[in-house]
Amino acid sequence: MASPVQQSPQPGGGKRKGKAQYVQAKRARRCDGGGPRQLEPGLQGILITCNMNERKCVEEAYSLLNEYGDDMYGPEKFADKDQQPSGSEAEDDDVEAALKKEVGDIKASTEMRLRRFQSVESGANNVVFIRTLGIEPEKLVHHILQDIYKTKKKKTRVILRMLPISGTCKAFLEDMKRYAETFLEPWFKAPNKGTFQIVYKSRNNSHMNREEVIKELAGIVGSLNSENKVDLTNPQYTVVVEIIKAVCCLSVVKDYTLFRKYNLQEVVKSAKDSSQLNAKQAALTGNGKEAKLESGDKSNQKDAAEGKNNQQVVPEDSEELGQTEPVSETHVVSEGAAKPELASQVTEGSESHGNDLS
């Protein structure tokens, strides 16, 4: 209980009486779910980005994860608090049996508090981390995105990206290298192999170098199996590196490009919708340039030669528009893929899309 602290009397000799102040007890570092309150090394879970409303994001995450978690792993089971011993056990006065029973009750209550999904503080704004227990985050998130991709049914309003985190370690280069050597083995160590890319994101961290981290991780993947190749257009695996403060979150996911960088808002959109949006943007840009050309034609109507030149400029601009439309990621990736060095290839394509919603 908080104890009152008396203020010292004022040195001026005033008669003002000291007011009792109550100091709040320090908040515990453990949450009600029985786990850590903050993101720390050794956790597994799901990293979720949102749009300014973290509380609503947590609510949506619990609803979505419990829905698909029950579908994949069955309903979550808890110990019964009101479970009473049988008559024979109640009448047993043996001290040893009573002690064992008490220990069992404590263990049961601890297991009951450890929920399948528990939100912890991520350490960054607009980022929520849901700790998982007894499930495989990459399989659960892939199942969610696969279902949303097929049904095109929007199930969230605030959640943007949902990234599974299969392992966490300290965000220092030597710790990351040591951890990644064993972490990446299930996907890339011989006889396993596959094409891959590395995506990197850092929040509230200034001591890590992006190019250096990507180079080291790409070297580790290559050392596990020489047949592992970089593919920045449609890789079989995507190594996700998310650094928040002093914690590095790692995962290896599939269908990263197909599921729009694991963005729940973009996965709902069909390919037809995205193509129509690109066509509208190109049309708006083209109308602006054509209007400028028409004004130039009117001002130079007296000069027939200039009029012909202006008419020839239109198809050139339209061809340029057609070229600039799909350049966003495909062209950058092809340029990176042409480079001989492994690390430079991954660096070019890891974050070629600048308008990431995270």
From TrEMBL:
One of its GO terms (molecular function) is RNA binding. GO terms for biological process: tRNA modification. Keywords: RNA-binding. Gene3D superfamilies: THUMP superfamily. It comes from the Eukaryota. CDD domains: THUMP_THUMPD1_like. Residues 1-39, 73-95, 275-358 are annotated as: Disordered. Residues 1-10 have a biased composition (Polar residues). Residues 289-306 have a biased composition (Basic and acidic residues). Residues 147-254 form the THUMP domain. InterPro entries: THUMP_dom, THUMPD1-like. PANTHER family: THUMP DOMAIN CONTAINING PROTEIN 1-RELATED, THUMP DOMAIN-CONTAINING PROTEIN 1. Belongs to the THUMPD1 family. Functions as a tRNA-binding adapter to mediate NAT10-dependent tRNA acetylation modifying cytidine to N4-acetylcytidine (ac4C). Interacts with NAT10. Binds tRNA. This is THUMP domain-containing protein 1. The gene is THUMPD1.
